[in-house]
Amino acid sequence: MRVASEIELTQKEKSKNATHWSTRTLAARLNVSQTMVHRVRKANGLKPHMVRIS
Fold first, then answer.
1. Does this model's pTM top 0.85?
2. Exposure winner among 11, 17, 22, 29, fewest CB in 10 A?
3. Taking a C-beta distance cutoff of 8 angstroms, is the pair 26, 15 a contact?
4. What is the DSSP string of 11-44?
């Protein structure tokens, strides 16, 4: 379920004091490696810097 929570966080929330989740901050929040965050983003075509969060 980490993949699902990563995708949800990337699309629906933004990091504290930032415009989007970096791989490091999201990895720390989910307690996974930065590499895992990168792989999930790449596999799912996620580009958090291009997502508009209201």
1. no
2. 17
3. yes
4. HH---TTSSS--HHHHHHHHT--HHHHHHHHHHH
Q: What pLDDT digit, counting tens, does each position of 3-31 carry?
A: 777 777 776 777 777 777 888 888 888 88
Examine the pLDDT at 36 and tell me if it is beyond 70. yes
Structure token digits, residue 31: 């307690």
Q: Based on the structure, what is the number of domains in the chain?
A: 1
Spatial neighbors of 52 by CB under 8 A, at least 6 apart, are none
Q: Judge contact between 15 and 21, C-beta under 8 A.
A: yes
Q: By residue range, what is the domain housing residue 18?
A: 2-50
Instruction: Give the confidence band of 35 by pLDDT, cuts at 50, 70, 90.
Output: very high
